[in-house]
Each structure stands twice: as C-alpha cells, then as structure tokens.
Amino acid sequence: MKNLLLTLALSVGCISYSAAQVQIDTRPQTSADVGMSPIKQGNWMVGGSVGSLGYSFESKSFNINLSPRAGYFVTDGLAIGAQANLGLRTVDEGDNEWGYGIAPFVRYYFPGGASASGRFFGQGDIGIGGSSAGDNVSLNLGANVGYAHFITQTVALEVMAGYNYSKANIDAANKASGLGVSLGFQVYLPGRR
User: Fold this and answer.
1) Which parts of the chain register pLDDT below 50?
2) CA-to-CA distance for 118 and 158, rounded, in angstroms?
3) Keyword set for this entry (predicted)?
4) What DSSP string describes 18-73?
5) DSSP 117
6) Which of 28, 60, 133, 191 makes an SS bond possible with 92, Cβ 3.0 to 4.6 Å?
C-alpha cells in the first residue's frame, strides 16, 4: 500500500512539475491580431514610404521618391492628412534634379477582404510640386491601392501601387503619368477616447 501511495504521489508531482514549465518563444513577431483598433475614429497615423525606385535605360537616370505622411481618422477606417513628396533624379550626363511637393490625401480601409492582422486600403491625393530644374509648378494627382500588414498592435508595413499624374505649367501641355509602387510603414497612435 505504501508503494502504491508513493508511486501515485510521485506521478502527481511529476505531472504538476511538467505542466508548470513555460515555453518562451524567442522568434521575432511578424504579425499581430489587431482587428479595427488601429483605424478607429480619433486615432492618428504617422509614417512614410519609399517609392518610384528605378532606373531608366532610355535616359540613363536613376530616381527615388520619399513620402512622409501624417493623417487623422475622421471616422472608423477613413483618414485624411497630408504627405510631403521628396524626390531625387540622377542623370549620367547632366545635373541631378531634386523634386518636392505637398499633397493632401484621403485614405479608406476596406472592411471586406481584411484579416485580423492586415487591411486593404485605397488612397487618393492631389497636390502641387516643383523641382530644382526650373521654376515650374506642377499639379500632382495620385490614385493608389495597398495592403497594410500589422506586425504589432500599432505598427504596419505597407505596400502600395497605383497611377500617378503630373502636369507642369497648367496652361501648357507638359505632363507625365505612370504606374508606381512604394514600400513603407505606418505607426498608428491612439487618440482621445
């Protein structure tokens, strides 16, 4: 009887000890279940993107654009804000050209097709810009779609693609349009509730 009680006590003790062991996961976090919390009314978003990174074989030029942005959620899933457009175009046989501009934007996060850790969105912007190549002011328009993947409760990595249009000298016919892709991140800050 003593052997049976001793065996039973040791078995319960071993099972209790093994259940108390905690496994710590040391892998980096790659996604977070956030739902609607980052894109609620009253929240802010701050971040930016790198886009239009490329090389033109025809003109032998390299270009890159940076777009820092900030926005405010006026309602759940709808943010308005402004972004700066900063660009550099290098030419093999010529002067480098710096571009600049500012554009208000509207961004809408689609409820359909979303997951717990990501959201599809659409963004439209209209603004003005210029460059170091001349004193022309251009009208800039953009229509983009993208996906935000939340790696934490407040930080998302984004990819965005869309159509961009620019027209310098509003009364003349100098214009440019094309497709663009950008990569970036956003930090979603909670507002007052």
Assistant:
1) 173
2) 10
3) Signal
4) HHT--PPP-SPP-----TTGGGSTT-EEEEEEEEEEEEETTTTEEEEEEEEEEEEE
5) T
6) 60
How far apart are the C-alpha atoms of 9 and 157, rounded to whole Å? 53
CA distance 36 to 51: 27
Q: Where do we find the tokens 């935000």?
A: 148
Count the residues in the chain.
193
Calculate the CA 158 to chain-centre distance: 3
Question: What structural domains does the chain harbor?
Answer: 31-189 (2.40.160.20)
| Token pair for 171 | 């009364």
Q: Strand ranges (DSSP E) for the chain? A: 44-56, 61-75, 78-91, 97-109, 118-131, 134-150, 155-168, 175-189
